[in-house]
């Protein structure tokens, strides 16, 4: 059943993003920002963790999970280190994913040549 809920909730997040593109004519940057901020807000209220428990990869794979990671890391480090933990917590939790995106992007740019 976990696969069904992951598919349904993850698909719903994608449908919301597509509606933002098609109906509201938002740019990819605006859509991305709205989804990241909504994930951050859900985590700020403590609603993202129960959603992860319910839908699993359906909510950990989409971009909303990045907002969740930012706020989750910031709040966790803020409890231990105070206000400076807010900044360090965001970077600590998300640094591996951001580093991987940069490294693989550079490798892809070196290996493949654009057509046109």
From TrEMBL:
Keywords: Membrane, Transmembrane, Transmembrane helix. InterPro entries: Spore_V_AE, SpoVA. The keyword rRNA processing does not apply. It comes from Oceanobacillus profundus. NCBIfam families: spore_V_AE. The chain crosses the membrane at residues 6-24, 83-112. It holds the Pfam family SpoVAC_SpoVAEB. The lineage of its organism: Bacteria, Bacillati, Bacillota, Bacilli, Bacillales. PANTHER family: STAGE V SPORULATION PROTEIN AC-RELATED, STAGE V SPORULATION PROTEIN AEB. This is Stage V sporulation protein AE.
